[in-house]
Structure formats: structure tokens, C-alpha cells
Amino acid sequence: KTKAFIFDLDGVIVDTAKYHFLAWQKLAVSLGITFTHEDNEQLKGVSRVRSLELILGLGNVEATEAQKEEWLVQKNEDYLGYINKMDDSEILPDVMKVLNFLKENNQPIILGSASKNARPILEKVNILHYFDDIVDGNDVSNAKPDPEVFLVGAKKANQTNENSIVFEDSVAGVQAANVAGMISVGIGEASVLNEAKYNFNDFTEISEEFLLELINQ
Ligand code: G6P
Ligand code: MG
């Protein structure tokens, strides 16, 4: 059988959350806003524009559209500074095992990410060629938990939503998959991702038997 295997990027394939944090924190400090690791958790899966609004909200900072635009550009430049130093050592444990197994079994592999930097990141860590299609923040207008990014991904793989499996580390992403009627696999703390159909702390816990079950069910 053939299914669509849709992967989120940040926090699922690579741990870029730490770079988003450093870039947002630099901006927050420059605006006199306290921004903690805990605050950063709330930004997982959240678009760049929405993330800025949440951070400004933390400090009750009001700004013009032009200021916001400037801060968004600044944040992304700082973020890209970290991304440019990435290599394949930053791929999270056993992600390659899973991608290779799916390839061997001729399953479509799709990226479904809110990031507008998805392609350069996949290139930096040398796995762009694993993906049959990429749907990212440049392709959709509705952010997770809206399911648009996954719906487009399933369509590109010519699969129904029921036959699509989504790997996600964010609550918004799990909700998006569920709303679409897809099979959600939460990667991270089960207590946080309790709405997911399946839960694993990371890919080292995902067996070939489990993947075969997903393919054949
Ligand atoms: C992912 C991350 C978010 C990030 C968003 C947009 O969903 O989890 O933290 O804000 O992508 O990323 P971008 O690279 O376009 O700023
Ligand atoms: Mg993520």
C-alpha cells in the first residue's frame, strides 16, 4: 500500500527551536521584553508574524506596521546566521532510519512546515532530495492549527486525508492533522501532545514494525 508520510520540520527533523529562541530573545532584549524558554514553547509551530505578536504582547509593546516589519527582517537575519552554520549532524536521532525505511518501501515523503526557511534548512542538512514534495510557509496562508499545509501535502502525494500520517512536535500541528482527519503522530512529551493518536519521545522509539503497520492499515 501507499500512504502519504508528512513531516513537520522544526522540532521533528531538526532542533531549530533553539535558534528561533536565540534570535527572538535578542529582539526581545533589545525591546526590553523578558522572553524565557517557557515562552518559546508557545511559539512552536506558530508563524513568524504571529510569534512576533505574541512576544510584543508579553511586554505590552505597541508598534507600527513598519516597525514590526523591520523586527521580522532582523529576527530572520539573525536566525539565518545560525542556520547557515548547520550541517547533517543536527538531524535528530533516527530520523534518517525512518526516512530510509519509508524510501525503501516506496512511500511518499512530504514536508509540511510553517517555516519560510524550510528549503534552505533541508539543503544545509543534506536531505532535500528525500522529499517528494515540500509544502511550507511560502505555499499556504493559514497557519496551524488550520490544516491547510497538510491538506496541500496530501494532495501533492495523491493521497486521501485518511491515508496521510503526520509527524508533529507542536500542539497546533497535532490539532491541524486531527482536524484534517489524518493520523497524528506526536513527537515529544506525551503529556503536552496528548491529542495525538500516537506518541513517541523521539524517532528512536519508532520501530520498523510500527511503520509497516501504518503503511498496511
Ligand atoms: C515553525 C517553528 C516556529 C516558526 C515557524 C516559522 O513552525 O516551529 O517556531 O516561527 O516555523 O518559521 P520561519 O523560519 O518562517 O520564521
Ligand atoms: Mg515543529
From TrEMBL:
Top-level division of the source organism's lineage:
Bacteria
Sequence positions that bind substrate: 8-10, 24, 43-48, 51, 75, 113-117, 144
Q: Where is the active site?
A: D8, D10
Keyword annotations: Isomerase, Magnesium, Metal-binding
Q: Where is this site: Important for catalytic activity and assists the phosphoryl transfer reaction to Asp8 by balancing charge and orienting the reacting groups?
A: S113, K144
Cofactor notes: Binds 2 magnesium ions per subunit.
Name the cofactor(s) required for activity, per the record.
Mg(2+)
Class in the EC hierarchy, top level: isomerase
Q: Name one GO molecular function term.
A: magnesium ion binding
EC assignment: 5.4.2.6
A Pfam family in this protein? Hydrolase
Q: Does the keyword Isomerase apply?
A: yes
The Gene Ontology biological process terms listed for this entry are: carbohydrate metabolic process
The residues that the entry says bind Mg(2+) are D8, D10, E168, D169
Q: Which family does it belong to?
A: Belongs to the HAD-like hydrolase superfamily. CbbY/CbbZ/Gph/YieH family.
Protein's recorded name: Beta-phosphoglucomutase
